[in-house]
Every structure is written in C-alpha cells, then in structure tokens.
C-alpha cells in the first residue's frame, strides 16, 4: 500500500493514506522497543536484562529479503527511495539436506567444492547453469531444442540428467519455488527465476539478498516520504469507521465522523473482510538467539531453505536470520524467523525441523496468520485489495501483487519508467535535507 501510494503520487494522483495503527507498515511492521513485542504476543512480564535495551530492537513481524536484482530494488532505485535507506548484503544462503545444512554454491568454485553433489553431478549442474546464463527468450539459437513455452522444467532437468537432490535445491533454493508444482509447467518462468538469482548474486557475491538497516519497517516509511514529497497526505492512528459505497462504487472513507471522498481505494484484507476469501495459513516463529546458527560459518545473517521433499511436506520451510549487525537487535543477539505454509492441524510440529536448527532458543514468539485473497477485483467497486504476505522470504510475489493492483486500477501494464521521479518536482526535498 505504501509503495502504491508513492507511485500514485508520482503519477500526479491526489493521495490520502490512512492507517489505523500508530506505526507504518501494517502487517509487515518492525516492532520496537522489545517490550512492545512481548505485549503484542501477550507474553507475561518484561524482557530479561540479558536482552539489553528495548530500544535497540526492531523486530520484523514478516521476514523478507530483497533480491539484489529483483523488482523491489528496481522500484527503490527508480523512485530514488534508496536515498532514505541503507542496505547490507545477507552473508549466505543455505539449503537443508538429510538433516544438515549446506551453503548454496554461489560461484563456480563453490559449486565445485560443494559437498551437496558428487563430482559428475557437479559437471552436469555446471553445464545446466551455463545453459541458463546464456538462455535468451528472444533468441531461439540459445534454446538447444527446448521450447520455453511448452517444454516442462521436468524435461529440462532430464535433458541435463540432474538427480533428485540437485533438482530439489535448484527449484527451491535458486528458483525459490515453495512447492513442486512448477515441474510440470513450461520452463521459461523457472529459467528466468534462476537467472534472477544468479544475476542478483553476481552483484555482491555473498548471496543474492539485501536487507535494510533498522529493519523492513524502513521500506514503507521510505515510500510514505516519497508520497509526501509529491503532495500525498499520511495519517497514522486514524480509525476507519466505514467504507462509503454508492451504487456499488466506493465514494469515500468515514473516519471520526468525517468522510474523505475518493474515486479509488487501495487497502489490505483486514479492512474489507466481506470482499476477501481465506486461501490458507502461514505459521511464523520469531526466535531470539544469543549465538549464530550452527554450521553457517558464524554468519551474522543468512537464509536457510528446507525443501519440502526433505521433510515430507508439500511446501518449503524458510528461516531468515539477522542480527545486531543490522541495527535490529541488541549487541551479540540474533533474530531468526522461521515460516511456512500450514498443511496440518498442528502447525508448530510442521515448523519443528527449522527450530531444531536454531537451538538453543532464548525466546519464541509464535503467530499463525490467515492468508486472504480479494474476491472483488475492483472493476466495479474501485476498491483494490492487496493479498496477504505469503511464506516466501523475498519480495518478488509482493511486487507481482503491486503490479497486478496497478494494472487493475490504471487499466494499463505497470511501467517502471512511470515511477521515475520527475526532475522538476523535488519541492520539499531541500527543506527536509
């Protein structure tokens, strides 16, 4: 919503942004001080002395990293919101196999040294990576007999004779699919995802992921500033009493007895429970640790992916870990957040393989959230509803949703060029510097 309000403002629309919370970012806020996190999860008492100062904590409710070459970074660069943020590269990406974790090879040298694969498997995998790197959907010479719109990914793996373990980590740790449904779909999307991973990795070398200092709560604030510079108005702590509808179409929003009139409305599912449908659940467990995760070479940040096959599930389990190095925790403390899509009536048991990797855990905060998708696409009502954040640990699916809402609102494809700051409209910037 914050990104869209920024983009709409740059596009010359008049934007009023209301939030019933006292902080930016709604569901995906970063909570500070630590005392507030304890309250939010109804934990008795206050954080122990050993946790340091409450103010030193900024804990994300929904963990996600940015792909260095991904859509969100592009949005940040085009709108120049990057000037309000500082990023750090996540130190490593790991994948789970047979109860142990292994670093996802990030260079050819690492691939050759990796104990994830045997020697011949490595050669075949290298051939496959070279094929993907050279693949260009506009140049049939690079296809080598593969039809990107027809050949399934399963067949491409067969062509390179890749074994199940390699298929697992390629599909889940490189292409970042949550399930194995992609295997029987045309291979173009998967090849592009692996390219995105490799290109993101090439930018900084340690991993393809970036993370903002002071936590993800900085992102919505950055876009809120963008909106404000273009004349948008932002109101926190603003209760929404009613969405006013005339002849099936939104005409305004009622708050504290007054109606703010509008032609279009963007909101998340929590504001319109009658226009969304539940499509699943996600369990997330925030863990505070006093040590880096074992077998990660003492990384101060990392991602671990547990492919579903390895734990007899349909969806992957993710772990994101960040630390005091990112100004989100007290000195010497680490925050690891495990998440997955719920498949059984006992979600805590489903996420156990991830928690076992994190032991000993100092404090846990467990949440189970419903996932909603809009039943009303906004064509008639002009109410445009975002989807709930899924279990993935990067922003690509969120950006797809933003582009989808943009298209439904504007009737045209999302165009990154449209987001470019106009050179003559930086009024307000000088005073703020």
Automatic annotation (TrEMBL):
Molecular function in Gene Ontology: GTPase activator activity; Rab GDP-dissociation inhibitor activity
Keywords of the record, alphabetical order, are:
Acetylation, Cytoplasm, Golgi apparatus, GTPase activation, Membrane, Phosphoprotein
What membrane topology does this protein have? Peripheral membrane protein
Out of the domains of life, which is the source?
Eukaryota
Biological process, per Gene Ontology: protein transport; small GTPase-mediated signal transduction; vesicle-mediated transport
Compartments, record wording: Cytoplasm; Golgi apparatus, trans-Golgi network; Membrane
Q: Please give the start and end residues of each transmembrane region.
A: none
Q: Read off the InterPro entries from this record.
A: FAD/NAD-bd_sf (IPR036188), GDP_dissociation_inhibitor (IPR018203), RabGDI (IPR000806)
Q: A single Pfam family, by name? A: GDI
Q: Does the keyword Cytoplasm apply?
A: yes
- Sorted alphabetically, which Gene3D superfamilies does this protein's record hold? FAD/NAD(P)-binding domain, Guanine Nucleotide Dissociation Inhibitor, domain 1, Guanine Nucleotide Dissociation Inhibitor, domain 2
Which cellular component appears as one GO term in the record?
A: Golgi apparatus
Could you describe the subunit structure of this protein?
Interacts with RHOH. Interacts with the GDP-bound inactive forms of RAB3A, RAB3B, RAB3C, RAB5A, RAB5B, RAB5C, RAB8A, RAB8B, RAB10, RAB12, RAB35, and RAB43; binds RAB3D to a lesser extent. Interacts with DZIP1; this interaction negatively regulates the interaction of GDI2 with GDP-bound RAB8A.
Family listed: Belongs to the Rab GDI family.
Q: What does this protein do?
A: GDP-dissociation inhibitor preventing the GDP to GTP exchange of most Rab proteins. By keeping these small GTPases in their inactive GDP-bound form regulates intracellular membrane trafficking. Negatively regulates protein transport to the cilium and ciliogenesis through the inhibition of RAB8A. Regulates the GDP/GTP exchange reaction of most RAB proteins by inhibiting the dissociation of GDP from them, and the subsequent binding of GTP.
Question: What protein name does the entry list?
Answer: Rab GDP dissociation inhibitor
Gene from which the chain derives = Gdi2
């Amino acid at each position: 919503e914050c990104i869209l309000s920024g983009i709409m403002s740059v596009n010359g629309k008049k934007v009023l942004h209301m939030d019933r919370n006292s902080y930016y970012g709604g569901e995906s806020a970063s909570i500070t001080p630590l005392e507030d996190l304890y309250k939010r999860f109804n934990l008795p008492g206050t954080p122990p002395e050993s946790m340091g100062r409450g103010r030193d904590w900024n804990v994300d409710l929904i963990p996600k990293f940015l792909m260095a070459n991904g859509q969100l970074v592009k949005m940040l660069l085009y709108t120049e919101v990057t000037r309000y943020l500082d990023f750090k590269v996540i130190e490593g990406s790991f994948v789970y196999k047979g109860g142990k974790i292994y670093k996802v090879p990030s260079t050819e040298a690492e691939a050759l040294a990796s104990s994830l694969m045997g020697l011949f498997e490595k050669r075949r995998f290298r051939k496959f990576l070279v094929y993907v790197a050279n693949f260009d959907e506009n140049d049939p010479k690079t296809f080598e007999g593969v039809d990107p719109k027809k050949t399934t990914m399963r067949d491409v793996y067969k062509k390179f004779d890749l074994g199940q373990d390699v298929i697992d980590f390629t599909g889940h740790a490189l292409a970042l699919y949550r399930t194995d449904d992609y295997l029987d779909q045309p291979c173009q999307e998967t090849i592009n995802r692996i390219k995105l991973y490799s290109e993101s990795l090439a930018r900084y070398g340690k991993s393809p992921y970036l993370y903002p200092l002071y936590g993800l709560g900085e992102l919505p604030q950055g876009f809120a500033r963008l909106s404000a510079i273009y004349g948008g108005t932002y109101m926190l702590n603003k209760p929404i009493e009613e969405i006013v509808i005339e002849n099936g179409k939104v005409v305004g929003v009622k708050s504290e007895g007054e109606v703010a009139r509008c032609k279009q409305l963007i909101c998340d599912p929590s504001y319109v429970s009658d226009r969304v449908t539940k499509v699943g659940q996600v369990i997330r467990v925030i863990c505070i640790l006093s040590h880096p995760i074992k077998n990660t070479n003492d990384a101060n940040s990392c991602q671990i992916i547990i492919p579903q096959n390895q734990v007899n599930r349909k969806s992957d389990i993710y772990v994101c870990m960040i630390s005091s190095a990112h100004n989100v925790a007290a000195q010497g403390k680490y925050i690891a957040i495990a998440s997955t899509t719920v498949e059984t009536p006992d979600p805590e048991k489903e996420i156990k393989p991830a928690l076992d990797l994190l032991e000993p855990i100092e404090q846990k905060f467990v949440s189970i959230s419903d996932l909603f998708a809009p039943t009303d696409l906004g064509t008639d009502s002009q109410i445009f509803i975002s989807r709930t954040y899924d279990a993935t640990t990067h922003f690509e699916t969120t950006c797809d949703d933003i582009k989808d809402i943009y298209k439904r609102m504007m009737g045209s494809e999302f165009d990154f060029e449209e987001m470019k700051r106009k050179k003559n409209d930086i009024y307000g910037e000088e005073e703020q510097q």
